[in-house]
Amino acid sequence: MSDILVVDDHPIIATACRIVLEPMGVGEIISASTADAGYQAFVEREPDVSVIDLSLHGEDMAGISLIKRIRSYKPDARILVFSMRSDRKSFFSAIEAGTTGYAIKDSPADEFTKAVEKTRLGRRYIDPQLALNLAFSKNAALSPREQRIINLLLKDSPRTGGAALA
């Protein structure tokens, strides 16, 4: 059984995660509402997966700082960003900070469970809608580095059949 840390400033999110993930046989859902509380909970409990929102209590990118702190403490931590933010800057900031996966909060519940499971297994995950938005809305505007990151993420994805972007 896997323990899951949920760091989100909206308590309903931890409750919803518990309900959605219970059928997967998760252990305990550990909840924290600030980056500091999230870090403390991570150090004390060392969960199998940490689900982290990027915006916490009005601090736009507090989740990014938390991801970096967790990574410095435990480099192989499995971290899933779970955010309403679906813009390129947020996504690439999270990837560069060290997140394992990135899920969008308006995705269907079954997509969220897939994201948690892949993250638990240490596999990369990118929300399919976010991947499409990144790949097609402004593909020409991607920097070479952003293009390499997208291609690496899509390389092992069963949804893309391992196809990289041109």
Name a few traits of the molecule.
single chain, 166 residues, alpha/beta, 47% helix, 14% strand, globular, disordered C terminus
Brief description of this entry?
The chain contains seven helices and six strands, in the order βαβαβαβαβαβαα.
Q: Can you offer a commentary on this structure?
A:
The protein has seven helices and six strands. The chain is α/β, with parallel strands linked by helices. The chain is globular and about 40 Å long.
Query: Biggest sheet, open or closed, and with what strands and sense?
Result: 6 strands, parallel
Strand content: 5-15%
Helix content: 40-55%
Number of strands: 6
Task: Tell me the radius of gyration.
Answer: 15 Å
* N-to-C series of helices and strands: EHEHEHEHEHEHH
Given the C-alpha coordinates, what overall shape results? globular
Order of adjacent strands in the largest pleated sheet? 2-1-3-4-5-6
Low-confidence stretches: 160-166
- For the record, give the distance between the C-alpha atoms at the N and C termini, rounded to a whole number: 40 Å
Which helices and strands appear, and what pairs or packs with what?
Layout lengths: L3 E4 L3 H11 L7 E4 L2 H11 L3 E4 L9 H12 L5 E5 L4 H10 L3 E4 L4 H12 L4 E2 L1 H10 L6 H12 L11
Parallel strand pairs: 1-2, 1-3, 3-4, 4-5, 5-6
